[in-house]
């Protein structure tokens, strides 16, 4: 089942509509499996925490 979901997701992110969004907005449109996405979220949250600390944001 995970393979079917991954295949469908990859198809969606490569669709003309998704690529148009990427082109017109500069957004990154890509697929990551669960392990890679979990790792990316943890990395992003660490980076956000570091930025908030540098900016003195406490809320």
Topology, please?
Blueprint: H1 2-13, H2 16-25, H3 34-55
The global form is flat
Low-confidence regions: none
Biggest sheet features: none
Distance between the termini: 40 Å
Rg on CA atoms, Å: 16 Å
Estimate what percentage of residues fall within beta strands.
under 5%
Average pLDDT confidence is 93
Specify the structural class. mainly alpha
Helix/strand order = HHH
3D architecture notes:
The chain is an all-alpha fold. The chain has one domain (2-55). It contains three helices and no strands. It has helices spanning 2-13, 16-25, 34-55.
Keywords:
59 residues; mainly alpha; single chain
What is the compact description of this entry?
With 59 residues, this protein is an all-alpha fold. 75% of the residues lie in helices and 0% in strands.
């Amino acid at each position: 089942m995970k393979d079917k979901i991954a295949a469908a997701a990859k198809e969606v992110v490569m669709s003309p509509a998704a690529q148009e969004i990427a082109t017109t907005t500069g957004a990154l449109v890509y697929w990551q499996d669960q392990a890679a996405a979990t790792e990316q979220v943890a990395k992003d949250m660490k980076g956000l925490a570091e930025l908030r600390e540098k900016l003195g944001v406490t809320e």
